[in-house]
Amino acid sequence: MEDTLKFGSETSLSSFAFGVPQVDPPTGLYSSQAQLGLGRNSTFLQTLVSAGDIGTRAYALFWGLMGVKQTQGSLVLGGLDKSLISDQDANLTAQLAYSAACPTGMLVTINDILLNWPNGTDQSIFGGSQSEVFQACVNPNAAGLVALPYRYYQNFQAYAGGAPPDGKSEVRSLGLDFYTMVFNATDVYYGGMTISLQNGPSIRVPNTELVVYDRTVASDGSIQTNTSIRDVVVGSLQDVNKDDLPMLGRLFLSSAYLMVNQEAGRFSVWQANTAPTDSKIVAVDKENNEISDFCANSTDPTLLPSSSTAPSAQSSTQNKHSKFSGGAIGGIVAGAVASLAILGAIGFLLLRRRRSGNATPHVSREVDMHMANVKELACDDYGVNYEEPQELPGCRNQVTELPGYRNHVTELDGRAVDGNRN
């Protein structure tokens, strides 16, 4: 299907294609939400660049807190929000390395995962061996926090403890945190987790983001919460998935801040500042340089800090000082959103959570849907003529949306099920 996608009042993209399932497929084989494609061939980003609304095909994402305390997420197009970075210098910056196993191109190496107990002690699920590293793909479309190789998940389970409901040996969620592990609310892991990225930061995930309520989307669109059980948003790769590449999913971005620059072919990960006071939005150029002033007569850009790249990808050594030409706009379109998901059937509304900081979930509540708060940060001094952008030539290859692998996302009317069921 196709529809018109609008960005504020000035820019629109007509005949934007999106998929709508025509039949009820087997559980987990499709995403029940339309995906906002931000990949390397993104029509969405290219249209904004062509219209002069952003200077480069880049985006930055913070998912927002998903526990009892829920906050808005943030999606910045054409740059990043520095207020969401806990430590600017502690980052992993690496080359995008696209593959069938990692369609987003964001391949990282995890060299340790620690369980953080409330008494201040830590326990490694790697067993203390520095050689026990593995690669993982950062994929904002994947459900949960992390999908672990089965051996590592067994170590996690042995240390974390907890009892699945109804005396089962394993129960998985069919809700928003699809196929992550389900436990009794009264017998579940009560610590946090730290994921250490090789040559990068150690991302600390608090218990409130690791152990969450089990939530499903009902047939009427409402969010239903089961308070008697908890989802530990960790999955294990076993059986038919045992050879899959481990994944860092969207809830990883509740504790980490991600920026991707398709023009520069690079991505960066920082520990997220989950309680910013004011936004500090800056643009980036095609060489991944930070532009603090959006006008073309600005001073020289600031180079984004770079760190050693994970062994699986080569670092870019190109860090030229550059700035936008006089006729270009280094603007940013910024939208505070709860996720990358938008509901195609009702005009691609961007989801945005407006829950209070300490709100307690109800058993059933409606999805809060608002139009994205889109801000244009551009300069009118250069007489940019804002016109409706033309469609890309019909001979272009089909756009590759992010990501291209089989989605494990929300099914309607889902419930936690016995993972051992045939």
UniProtKB/TrEMBL annotation:
Residues 298-318 have a biased composition (Low complexity). The chain crosses the membrane at residues 324-351. InterPro entries: Immunoregulatory_rcpt-like, PEPTIDASE_A1, Peptidase_aspartic_dom_sf. Residues 295-321 are annotated as: Disordered. SUPFAM superfamilies: Acid proteases. Its main location: membrane. Keywords: Membrane, Transmembrane, Transmembrane helix. It is a single-pass membrane protein. It is found in: Membrane. GO terms for cellular component: cell periphery; membrane. Residues 1-270 form the Peptidase A1 domain. PANTHER family: MEMBRANE PROTEIN WSC4, PUTATIVE (AFU_ORTHOLOGUE AFUA_5G09020)-RELATED, PAIRED IMMUNOGLOBULIN-LIKE TYPE 2 RECEPTOR. This is Peptidase A1 domain-containing protein.
